[in-house]
Design a protein that fits this description.
- With 86 residues, this protein is an alpha+beta fold.
- It has a single domain (3-83), classed as SH3 type barrels, CATH 2.30.30.100.
- The protein contains two helices and five strands, in the order ααβββββ.
- The protein has a five-stranded antiparallel beta sheet with strand order 4-3-2-1-5, with no helix packed on it.
- It is globular, with a radius of gyration of 12 Å.
- The relative contact order is 0.25.
Length: 86
């Protein structure tokens, strides 16, 4: 079940609770420009701003991935967040 569906179905009153359950776990954050970030969720706030650690950035139409130790992503740029699938 995707995190987006889970949030809509089970936590319509408090979708941030889903993020709380993903702290220190791998997630995928896709931005509105289709860039994806794969990393460990360390923090979030009520605006869906997130801080990730050990991040890999995948930019569409680029072969090389960028890596970051820590990354802040503003919530207004986020299209969706999914749990990382192994």
């Amino acid at each position: 079940m995707s995190l987006c569906f889970y949030m809509a179905y089970n936590n319509s009153r408090n979708p941030l609770r889903v993020l709380q359950n993903r702290i220190n776990q791998q997630i995928v954050v896709r931005l509105k420009d289709s860039t994806e970030y794969h990393g460990t969720l360390k923090e979030y706030d009520n605006f869906m701003n997130v801080i990730l650690e050990n991040v890999t950035e995948q930019v569409p139409n680029e072969e090389k991935n960028n890596n970051y130790t820590q990354l802040f992503i503003r919530g207004n740029n986020i299209l969706f967040i999914l749990p990382e699938v192994d």
